């Protein structure tokens, strides 16, 4: 039997913060999870439960109080260029053009290689013609695409995304979800994606990890075994979505409200 080694392994993660009054606040409790190479995993859970904290630990920004995260079987103890983190608030550099932003992390390539990589990603995010535009000339959705392209161009094998579409309006968000699925299909990166939007998680992920209230434990891991791009009217899609709503403790009215 071939046992596949996980790309990312969370081993018994616990995290406590010390509050200002000296009290201990436990945020994560016994989190165990394996993520396969090339897998798209979404993490959902109530606000303040510890989603960002978990991602920060996986990326090496924070040390757990107990347990460890391994990537390619190596314990994570600091951030690394092979893994990039995309935040909710856009952090493209305002003083650089679209091309310069995308090429920012490319230090080891020849100028020709660099141009080729930039061209490829500009095309992938649909911003051909905007290569020399500055962020102030772009919409929120365009800026977020530049951010994603910049992250991908630096050649990471793991992407950590913390509500990367959270600041966008609903329509742009829908479009960006579809774009993200397409980019992931082309690039086959391992993605760990935090969202509090259940619909978003079922549209994007191979598996959805549902966290409990703080201290967060894994309440359930739900497989989303549906072909992409996903048909949002498919009864199986709706069943999985409602199952996750229920796991998050939303009653029937919550589910109905969320459908509107
Ligand atoms: N540096 C810190 N020091 C103390 N407490 C912290 C720190 N960072 C986060 N916390 C606490 O840890 C808990 C989890 O925070 P976290 O940001 O991980 O939640 P989240 O699930 O990402 O929430 P949201 O959905 O609102 O983004 C919160 O109660 C927060 O107050
Ligand atoms: Mg958060």
Automatic annotation (TrEMBL):
SMART domains named among the record's database cross-references: AAA
Keywords on record: ATP-binding, Nucleotide-binding, Transport
Pfam families: ABC_tran (PF00005)
Keyword Isomerase found: no
GO MF annotations, alphabetized: ATP binding; ATP hydrolysis activity
Protein name as catalogued: NitT/TauT family transport system ATP-binding protein
Natural source organism: Aporhodopirellula rubra
Residue ranges occupied by any ABC transporter domain in the UniProt entry: 8-238
Keyword flag Signal: no
InterPro entries in alphabetical order: AAA+_ATPase, ABC_transporter-like_ATP-bd, ABC_transporter-like_CS, ABC_transporter_ATP-bind, P-loop_NTPase
């Amino acid at each position: 039997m071939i046992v596949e080694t996980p790309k990312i392994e969370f081993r018994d993660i616990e995290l406590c913060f010390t509050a200002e009054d000296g009290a201990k606040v436990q945020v994560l409790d016994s989190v165990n999870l394996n993520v396969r190479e090339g897998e798209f995993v979404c993490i959902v859970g109530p606000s303040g439960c510890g989603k960002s904290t978990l991602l920060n630990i996986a990326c090496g920004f924070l040390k757990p109080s107990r347990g460890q995260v391994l990537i390619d079987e190596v314990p994570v103890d600091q951030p690394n260029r092979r893994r990039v983190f995309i935040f909710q608030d856009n952090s493209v550099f305002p003083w650089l053009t679209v091309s310069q932003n995308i090429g920012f992390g490319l230090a080891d390539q020849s100028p020709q290689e660099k141009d080729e990589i930039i061209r490829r990603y500009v095309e992938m995010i649909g911003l051909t013609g905007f290569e020399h535009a500055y962020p102030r000339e772009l919409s929120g959705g365009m800026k977020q695409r530049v951010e994603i392209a910049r992250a991908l161009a630096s050649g990471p094998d793991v992407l950590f995304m913390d509500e990367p579409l959270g600041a966008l309006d609903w329509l742009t968000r829908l479009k960006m979800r579809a774009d993200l699925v397409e980019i992931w299909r082309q690039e086959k990166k391992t993605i760990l994606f935090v969202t509090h939007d259940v619909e978003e998680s079922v549209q994007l992920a191979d598996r959805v990890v549902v966290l409990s209230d703080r201290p967060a434990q894994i309440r359930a891991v739900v497989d989303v075994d549906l072909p992409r791009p996903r048909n949002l009217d498919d009864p199986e899609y709706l069943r999985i979505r409602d199952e996750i709503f229920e796991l998050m403790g939303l009653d029937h009215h919550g589910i109905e409200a969320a459908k509107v």
